[in-house]
Amino acid sequence: MLQFFLFRIFIVILEAMQQIKNYINGALTEPLSKTYLDNFNPSTGKVYSVIPDSDEKDVELAYSAAKAAFKDWSVTSKEKRSAYLLKIAALIEKNLDKLALAESIDNGKPLKLAKTVDIPRAAANFHFYGTGILHYASHAHSMEETAINYTLRQPVGVAGCISPWNLPLYLFSWKIAPALAAGCTVVAKPSEITPMTAFLLSEICIEAGLPAGVLNIVHGLGPKVGNAIVSHKDIPLISFTGGTSTGKSIASIAAPMFKKLSLELGGKNPNIIFADCDYDKMLATTLNSSFANQGQICLCGSRIFVERKIYDKFKTDFITKTKELIVGDPLNEKTKVGAIVSKQHQQKILSYIELAKQEGGKIVCGGKQLNLTNAFSEGYFIEPTIIEGLPYNCRTNQEEIFGPVVTITPFDTEEEALMMANSTVYGLASIVWTQNLTRAHKIANSLHAGIVWINCWLLRDLRTPFGGVKASGVGREGGFEALDFFTEPKNVCIKL
Ligand code: NAD
Q1: Which residue among 100, 275, 277, 312 is least crowded, i.e. fewest CB within 10 A of its CB?
Q2: Which residue has the higher pLDDT, 50 or 15?
Q3: Among 51, 170, 235, 241, which residue has the most ligand 1 atoms within 8 Å of its CB, making it the best to mutate?
Q4: What is the pLDDT of residues 41-76, one digit of tens each?
Q5: Model pLDDT for residues 281-338, shown as the tens digit of each residue
Q6: Closest Cα partner for 270 from 292, 314, 303?
Q7: Does ligand 1 have an atom closer than 6 angstroms to the CB of 478?
């Protein structure tokens, strides 16, 4: 009881109107304009903090700091850079409870998810690249007795890193950690919708003693701060994760400036279920891959294709399990589905449910805004929703909804499942459920996707390449691929 009381007091303190600051040249600073934007708690619909409404002048300050810091940081030994990253990882771990609570309040995701996935993964990102850089080696090519070539991998310079709201600290750190490990300095922008844990990371970097200017975090709107980073003439590299249309606009600015670009964009991932699957494992995982984080994970399987032989059974069981999911207060341990990240996004998801009805879809579960009571009466909730009866090529089945909404569609043959799976402009991830190994290999080989999960979902080894094909992006993050991205190869040829 006392513990519960203390926990609630902690929440009240955290929710007391906080002023988030930029982190520039090692200090927490106000935006030059001195203006701020409201930051909402999606589960209550109330403003609970404000964030800097920064602009290109703040980005310029951040760039100057990063440029000055690059001189030392780019030649700091790998061991020293590693030590800073490991210290940051340790501080994230030490502050797990505080960061998880902040993430849950800021984003609407269940606290349990933030505590077990988001924040541990952010620490893991720093840990992974803090140790990974020690094992990063370049190539040498011998021309027998004529010459020897060796390749230097030099940090590119000041990196621009821009991240989205769905996995705030997790994805922010997924860019920043490899950039810093590789010897780049960084100007970073978290999403204006979920800025809190990036702000807390600034405090952690100060505590870790990270040299001034090595990491700079500028808060604010995409078209102002993001655009200023992307179009900055002296920032040679952009690592972006977000929507496909934003990625397209970024590419149109950055490509003619010949910047190095990594674009991790949207998805409309298929989940293909064959009758010979391990049914219970498939059902439990499919529930997760459909509705975890309110369906707001770029890797969620939003189009579920089920072999006709088990379609009716699957539909009945899936609906039953989905109805059991507890939707509500993200801070309640039992909650499985929290709040949608913003009012605007909630309206977008609801409009897609309406579209699905107009396209002939039948809502077999959920389908409505959920109006809770008391503190949550103005929160942004949506019932987990299952829709059937839609053609594979209608808009609902082709466009990214990014919410707790899935469609279910029967298929008869492997070829038909593949054709439907590959029919969208996207190609990020895919999920396949079968016990037939030959079929699993065959399907994995033919899917248009950067990632294929067979009999699992979201099982991540940080060494593997992460990213998508087609409109889901350009380039890969993860493992040494990210260190390759943040460094420039230079071949040196010595005639013997
Ligand atoms: P978004 O594109 O609206 O915003 C992403 C970031 O870009 C934010 O920080 C935003 O402020 C900034 N931004 C917006 N306009 C900009 C501009 N003109 N110039 C520069 N920066 C700009 O995306 P979102 O709504 O925050 O995130 C959801 C999307 O992200 C979904 O489409 C989802 O699939 C995608 N996503 C992809 C991955 C992946 O790894 N492929 C991971 C997570 C999310």
Answers
A1: 312
A2: 50
A3: 241
A4: 999 999 999 999 999 999 999 999 999 999 999 999
A5: 999 999 999 999 999 999 999 999 999 999 999 999 999 999 999 999 999 999 999 9
A6: 303
A7: no
Is residue 298 flagged as an active site residue? Answer: yes
> Looking at the chain, which residues constitute the CATH 3.40.605.10 domain(s)?
8-266
The answer to whether the CB of 421 is under 6 A from ligand 1 is no
Closest C-alpha residue for ligand 1 atom 34: 266
Task: Check pLDDT > 80 for residue 172.
Answer: yes
What whole-number percentage of the chain has pLDDT above 70? 97
pTM (predicted TM-score):
0.96
Task: Give the distance (Å) from ligand 1 centre to CA of residue 281.
Answer: 32
The finding on whether 160 has its CB within 6 A of some atom of ligand 1 is no
Class (C level, CATH) for 270-464: alpha beta
Location of each CATH 3.40.309.10 domain in the chain: 270-464
Q: Which of 56, 103, 192, 264 is catalytic?
A: 264
Which of 184, 205, 277, 298 is an active site residue?
298
CATH fold for domain 8-266:
Aldehyde Dehydrogenase; Chain A, domain 1 (3.40.605)
Strands 429-433 and 36-41 turn out to be unpaired
Task: Tell me what the pLDDT averaged over the chain comes to.
Answer: 96
CA of 79 relative to ligand 1 center, distance in Å: 33
